[in-house]
Amino acid sequence: MIQRSTQSLPQFSEATQKAIGELRSLSIRTLRRMYLPEQGLFAYRFRRDSAGDRLEGVSRRYSAIVLIALAGEPEEISSEILAGQSIQDVCSRLLCSVRQSNDVGEVALALWAARALHHRDAWTALDRLKSLAPSERPYPTVEVSWALSALVVENEDMVVESLAEELAKRLLATFQKDSDLFSHWPAGAAPSSLRAHVACFADLVYPIHALASYCRATYNTDALHAAQCCARRMCELQGAQGQWWWHYDVRTGQVVERFPIYAVHQDAMGPMALFALQEVSGEDHTPAIVRGLQWLIDPPEISGSLIDAQAGVIWRKIARHEPGKLARSLQAGASRLHPALRVPGLDIALRPGRVDRECRPYHLGWILYAWPADRVARVAGHAGESQHHAAALANS
């Protein structure tokens, strides 16, 4: 059944409601620090190590994600984050910078931002996206999902039904009915034999979001069914203490490797996908969203939280104490030999608990996207409060 949902969300405790408000406020303050006015883009990351705290690099992908989020925020918030610069001007620079890009992900995200902002030059990103043939070439599922999400943004100035339909079909072709998960690569691609059966959490949430959004625009029930099945399986696999695990076996629908656990999955990507599904179907996964937030506030793998109010950041992830990506490689290899096979004893030999002390702007952008002011007001049971609530949070 397809239905639009606007009800309040009463399952959030007062403590969780407070945490959501604090996440929004922190995101706004920290994005101010991450914006580079001279480049008109956001830094790649904030990092802390033995040399101290610093911003590193520049990212067009992350800049686009922040613009997508700011499209739903009051003008005073976007102006504050962008150092007084016009969001339309910032989007113009982003569009100019991706005109010759061969990175389908950053082109898709730039198009999504431009369409969300009703930018007059959004067509330039659309033309570039079409030239990259996302419905034909072997791009990863995440990037195809971003492209579909970009094409179904509610924007009457640009109708792209045929390409959206092709991308939706491509995503549906990656859906594995035996596991209710989406594969990392589309059918016909030639991935590494070691990890051909492995999908990551992003391979689940972005297709759920894209197909739910596509259903909202077209009432396509096949898209809705796949999104619902994946969301249900994803929630079934959630850790007992709210962890959104990292790697999954698309053949069986089981977890391959649990770590690292990324903060962005807990407070932003998981909620944004499940809320997109709820808005079009009414299917409520609020308990899973709440558990994910509670893990972020008080993760059992460490003493303390990934939310560092003193530093003004949310640290990126909790990983194992391991060289490189050893645990993921071992578990991928073992499960490749047999779907039920796992390397035992990794929680002892490669103990989880290492905090990755960096923060990336896309994480903070997705927080604002997942938790816009009107949703925060509904969580608190005050559906009439929206833009004023956002401004108050920005200044808190």
List the helices and strands and how they pair.
Blueprint: H1 14-34, E1 35-36, E2 41-42, E3 45-49, E4 52-56, H2 60-70, H3 75-81, H4 87-97, H5 104-116, H6 122-131, H7 141-151, H8 161-174, E5 175-176, E6 181-182, E7 198-200, H9 202-218, H10 221-236, E8 247-249, E9 254-257, E10 261-262, H11 263-281, H12 286-297, E11 307-308, E12 313-314, E13 317-320, H13 326-337, H14 346-349, E14 352-356, E15 358-359, H15 361-370, H16 373-379, H17 387-394
Helix pairs in contact: 1-15, 2-4, 2-5, 2-15, 4-5, 5-6, 5-7, 7-8, 7-9, 9-10, 9-11, 10-11, 11-12, 11-15, 16-17
In the predicted model, the low-confidence regions spanning at least 5 consecutive residues are 383-396
Number of helices: 17
Q: What does the average pLDDT come to?
A: 91
Major sheet description: 3 strands, antiparallel
CATH architecture: Alpha/alpha barrel
Q: Kindly give the count of domains.
A: 1
Radius of gyration: 20 Å
Q: Write out the strand line-up for the largest beta sheet, numbering strands in chain order.
A: 4-3-15
- Percent range for helical residues? 40-55%
General shape: globular
- Please provide the count of β strands: 15
Say what the CATH topology is.
Glycosyltransferase
Q: Please identify the structural class as seen in this structure.
A: mainly alpha
Distance between the termini: 40 Å
CATH structural class: Mainly Alpha
Q: Can you walk through the features of this model?
A:
The structure is a single chain. With 396 residues, this protein is mainly alpha-helical. It has one domain: Alpha/alpha barrel (Glycosyltransferase). 51% of the residues lie in helices and 11% in strands. Strands 4-3-15 form a 3-stranded antiparallel sheet, with no helix packed on it. Strands 7-8-9 form a 3-stranded antiparallel sheet. The radius of gyration is 20 Å and the shape is globular. The termini are far apart. The relative contact order is 0.15.
